Structures are given as C-alpha cells and as structure tokens.
Recover the amino acids of this structure.
C-alpha cells in the first residue's frame, strides 16, 4: 500500500500576490460598472442627481461594497481563488492547510479593505491626502509579507490564513 506524496506548501511571494491583485482590480472595476448599470436601470437613469451639487443615494455605496465584498468572500471561500489569483496560481488556505472558513474569509476581507475607511477623511483633509493615507496603510499591511516566513500580509496574520503557490 503506497501513500500519496505529501505536497509541501509553497509560500506565495509578495510580487505574485501583488500581480494577482492588479488582475483583481480589473475584475472589481467590471463588477462596480455592472452594479452601476443595474442601479441606473432600476432608477430609470436617475441614480445620481446633478445640479448645483452631485447627489448619490445613501444606499448606493453600501450596495457596491456588499456586491464587491461578496465576490471576494465567495471566491476565497469556494475554491480559494479570485479571477486574479488563478493565472498566478495562488490559492487562499486556512493556516492548517484546509479551506478558509467563513469567519476567516470575512475577517480577512474586513481587515484588507479597512484602509478604504480613510477616504472618509477626504472632506476634511482633501482627497489627495486621503488617497495617500490609504495607499500608505496598504503598504503597511503588506510589509509583514516581506518578513513573515509564510509570506503572510497583515490581513492573513489576523485571519489565520495564508496564500500558497500552486504547482
């Protein structure tokens, strides 16, 4: 009786993670555009009010966040890969090696997306400053991947997940 060989986990390098993220940004842009189109159709083309000031309904941004978050959460939970992770052969796994749980996936999503909250500072600090603060926060999130033996970013460390390269 022979045993199947145990495949060693290959840590995902930061450059591969960031390349997959660029692909995922394109997918996210497409999702945001489709949600915008559906919302425009549902409101008869009156989603955004213009005049002396642009008015966006209060429900629109949470809807965008819910749909986009749902895409990432479902992709990570079922199959461990988003569209951007597939060509770079990267997969999300729980720390023990199995599929990530819903709790892990949602925590990872919340921590990874939390720098977006800095955009709330735009009215008081200015959009440029808020965008730079958000970018700096994400850089800090990924710095740990340079030093962690398993190449985990902050959101992976807190959620108990890791990205692995597939052979």
């Amino acid at each position: 009786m022979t045993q199947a060989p145990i495949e060693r986990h290959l840590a995902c390098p930061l450059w591969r993670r960031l390349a997959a993220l660029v692909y995922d940004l394109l997918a996210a842009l497409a999702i945001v555009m489709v949600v915008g189109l559906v919302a425009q159709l549902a409101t008869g083309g009156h989603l955004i009010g213009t005049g002396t000031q642009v008015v966006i309904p209060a429900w629109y941004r949470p809807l965008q966040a819910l749909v986009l978050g749902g895409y990432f959460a479902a992709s990570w939970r079922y199959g461990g890969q988003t569209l951007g992770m597939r060509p770079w052969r990267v997969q999300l796994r729980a720390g023990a090696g199995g599929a990530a749980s819903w709790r892990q996936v949602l925590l990872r999503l919340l921590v990874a997306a939390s720098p977006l909250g800095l955009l709330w500072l735009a009215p008081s600090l200015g959009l440029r400053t808020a965008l730079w603060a958000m970018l700096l926060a994400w850089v800090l999130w990924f710095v740990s991947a340079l030093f962690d033996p398993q190449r985990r970013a902050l959101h992976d460390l807190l959620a108990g997940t890791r990205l692995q390269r597939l052979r």
User: Anything to note?
Assistant: Confidence is low (pLDDT under 50) at residues 1-7. The first strand starts at residue 10 and ends at 11. The helical segments are 14-42, 60-77, 102-113, 122-125, 127-147, 154-159.
